[in-house]
Every structure is written in structure tokens, then in C-alpha cells.
Q: What sequence folds into this?
């Protein structure tokens, strides 16, 4: 059975829990409290030398890190990954957009404000994160004006990856009122079969 | 023929030029000077709403953005992408590592110091970028102590993606003297068939 090295509040971990649940693949969760540096112990660094969760243990001593790489691995030959090469590459485009332009701004704001409770200490840095985070939300809003899901006509791992931190963006101080297409898409994701919330494991 | 919307000094663009050249696929380069905001014009934003180069035009009105998504697209069913799913997913892991933990620190330092010439203005921010950039280099060094290339036994798009900004890390103020395995790997990449340098187009 897969083992998932996981931190419950992490959106990156949640992506993997959500896909595993939707694929009806059983797994064991192992909580790694990153706030206590549990992802920096020698034992954990042997699993992922980059010291980050989530990590999927596929077999003894066979580990895969990076949430979006794990989504790629699990989704192959399922309905959550397109069969057409151009659409597959568009999924990749949105996964890299998520990790470069979205997560470092929206997830980091949420981490500082709602996980660490240090909004005041990070006030200045948050201003720049909010400018870049809103820019990412605008790119998403414009895409969702044209289509129901990010790639093709159906729900894929691109939606899972972008949903993870967008649906809790308000915990990072982002106001989604002006993003009606994103809000409708969030509802669409939440109505998918076997959807589970971030606090559900 | 493919059109590549490109900026010659960009490592992200270079990744695509290098792979296209190694695959012996002809392409037309269209220079987009990001320093003049040419990637923020309405015309360019119609191609990539995220306003970043590189963008590959695959067919009229069919565009793909994000350098590592383009590498994925071009490398399918070639020797530059493994055939085994776990190794494919490890390639993905290193591509996401590159965009999350490496490029934002090493490429950004190079951009501030050597492209914009503003080392003094960014002095404080560069300190943090250097800490995180050296951490990424350490992860790479430890991997390369164990194997010649990042995934499996041969050169893949994971090596191309990580080579792009590592081989010019010194332009971002990084000293590679203490990374002998990285230096040997750089030579190994440079000895691959049809290798071209970043300034060659």
C-alpha cells in the first residue's frame, strides 16, 4: 500500500490525498509536522533530500517528491490526465504555472497569516505576494471565462493542483469576490465524485 | 515549422533551443525583449496570458508556455524522456524542483546582477536568494555523487532543465568551486551530441 508523508494543512499534500481518494486507491498517511522541522530530520531527508512534504512511498525505498510530479505519476492512464499529447502538455503548463506563479504567492501568504499567525511580521513581504497572487488569479479567471475546466472539457490534475490553494486563498488575505468564474469553478470541483475537503483524511 | 518566442539571455528559453537543436527539429526564433516589456503587450498576452517567455507556437493559434511543459511536449517518445513510468515521474520531480527551489533563487540572482546590473539595489534580497540557491545546489551535488545524470543512466530533459541556469550560476554570484560533482556533470552535458551554448542560436 502507498504511504503518504503528509502535513494535513498543506495544500500540496492535499492535492495528493484528493487524487488518491478520487482514484479509490487506499493509502497510509504519515503525519510530518513541518512546524517542528520534522521534514528536516536525517530520516526524512533520506526520503526527500529537498526536505519538503508531500512524499509518496511507492515501494520500500522508492520515494517520489514534488506534489505535481506525484499527481502526474498517479493520474497516468486515468480520466484525470488527457490522452492527447497537446492537452497533456497544457496540463503540464498549468502545473508549472501553479508552482511558479501561484503557490509561492498564495500559499506562502496563507502560511504566514493563518499557519504561523505572523501577518504583522510579514506585512511588507505580503504586499508583493498579494500583487503577484492577484495576477495569478486574474490569469485563472480569464481562462475560466472561456472553459469550465483548465484543460479540455473535463476535470484533470490541472484543476486539482490549482484548486488546492485557490479554495483557501482567503486564509492568505485574498478576496475572491471579484473572481466570479473562479468561484463557480471551485463549486464545480467540489461537486466531482468522491471529492473530499482539505481537513478530511 | 515551430516558432519559438524567445529571449536570448533567458535560461528558460535556452532549455527549449537546446532540446530543439539536439532533436534536429528546425524552428524560427522570434526575439521578445522582456527588458522592454515586449512580453506584456496585448499581442503577446494573447499567446501567453501569464506574460512570460518562452512560448512555443506549435501551429497557428496553438501555443504552449512554461519552459518545462515545452520540454515535456518535445521529448515524448524520444531518448530525452524515459519510457518507464517511475523514471518519467522522477524527471517530473526534478523539473518541479528546478522551477520551485532552483530557478527562483539562482536565475533571479543572475537576472538582478548580470542582466539588470543592480547588485547593490538588491543586496539584501540577494542574501536570502543565495542561501536558498546554495541549498538547491547541495541537493544537486548529493544526487550527482550517486549518478552521472539526474534520472536513470542517461541524459534527459531533467538534465537540460537543471543545466540551463546552473552553468551560468556564477553570473548570479554563486561560486561552484565546492561542487565538484556538479562541475563534472556540466562537462558531461556539454559533451552531449549537438550541444549548443546559451549564446548560440
A:
Amino acid at each position: 500500500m502507498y504511504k503518504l508523508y503528509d502535513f494535513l494543512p498543506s495544500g500540496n499534500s492535499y492535492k495528493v490525498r484528493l487524487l488518491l481518494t478520487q482514484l479509490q486507491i487506499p493509502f497510509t498517511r504519515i503525519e510530518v509536522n513541518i512546524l517542528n522541522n520534522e521534514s528536516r530530520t536525517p530520516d526524512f531527508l533520506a526520503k526527500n533530500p529537498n526536505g519538503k512534504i508531500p512524499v509518496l512511498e511507492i515501494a520500500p525505498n522508492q520515494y517520489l517528491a514534488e506534489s505535481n510530479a506525484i499527481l502526474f505519476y498517479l493520474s497516468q492512464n486515468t480520466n484525470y490526465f488527457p490522452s492527447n499529447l497537446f492537452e497533456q502538455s497544457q496540463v503540464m503548463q498549468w502545473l508549472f504555472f501553479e508552482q511558479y506563479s501561484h503557490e509561492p504567492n498564495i500559499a506562502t501568504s496563507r502560511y504566514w497569516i493563518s499557519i504561523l499567525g505572523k501577518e504583522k511580521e510579514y506585512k511588507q513581504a505580503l504586499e508583493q505576494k498579494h500583487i503577484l497572487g492577484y495576477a495569478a488569479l486574474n490569469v485563472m479567471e480569464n481562462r475560466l471565462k472561456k472553459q469550465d475546466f483548465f484543460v479540455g472539457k473535463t476535470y484533470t490534475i490541472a484543476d486539482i493542483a490549482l484548486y488546492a490553494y485557490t479554495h483557501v486563498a482567503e486564509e492568505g488575505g485574498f478576496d475572491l469576490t471579484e473572481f466570479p468564474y473562479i468561484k463557480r469553478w471551485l463549486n464545480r470541483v467540489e461537486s466531482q465524485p468522491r471529492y473530499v475537503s482539505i481537513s478530511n483524511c
Q: What stands out?
A: Residues 85-190 of chain B form a domain with the Glutathione S-transferase Yfyf (Class Pi); Chain A, domain 2 fold (CATH 1.20.1050.10). The two ends of chain B are 16 Å apart (CA to CA). The first helix of chain B runs from residue 11 to 22. DSSP finds seven helices and four strands in chain B.
